[in-house]
Design brief:
Layout lengths: L2 E5 L2 E5 L2 H13 L4 E6 L1 H7 L5 H7 L2 E4 L2 H6 L5 H8 L2 H12 L3 E6 L2 H14 L4 E7 H4 L3 H11 L3 E4 L5 H9 L7 E4 L3 H7 L3 H24 L1
Parallel strand pairs: 3-4, 3-8, 5-6, 5-7, 7-8
Antiparallel strand pairs: 1-2
Helix pairs in contact: 1-6
Length: 224
Amino acid sequence: MNDKIDILGLEIDNIIAKEAMKKVMDYIETEPVHVIEMITMGALGKFQGMEDATEMFKSFDLALASDKGILEAVGVTDERSLKEVQELLFVKMVMRYLHKNSVRTFLLANSQEDLHKLENYMQEDYANIQVIETATMEEHGASDDMLLNLINGAEATCVLSVLPSPMEEQFIYRNRALVNARMWLGLGNLLDEMKQKKSSWRRAKDFLLRQLWKKEIAKKGENA
């Protein structure tokens, strides 16, 4: 089952990790590029009022919540779904798949610092992923064409991106037809949020964001 949940006009897929992983295995074997975006709760506000945000989300093959607060904000109570999102099970399954199968992967980040964070994260548990090229917006961001030439020239199967939202989503939305890869996995700010998740400050921030989204969603329902 793959239900869509609507968060103020933005569609997020509500799908268990096992079913999402089945889709990934199909994506890796077929063309053209399939786009998976992991959406954090902090990023959602950046899309409000943005032109084409609704169509942008609809264009993604999968747009998945990476924070259970997103699901809770729209009233999802299924314990399995909430636990899987809380544990980032889908992301772990995809990374294990890339690792186990030595998938040719291109790493894209906003800065060298972010690129090093991604490389360190992969080195801990997913060192067998075959990284064939890396690039940063810091170095090449003035030109989409330059980045696309690097990505396509590397002949990667998967592009793993940690560009921050909404830069991440906007880049692949406007360039999707030009990317020569099987899968694009956008993690956004997820690595930073994973490190912060256990802090009391992070829990307080998540609680406030969750309450804000609940109020905004309720307000929209009253005005509908």
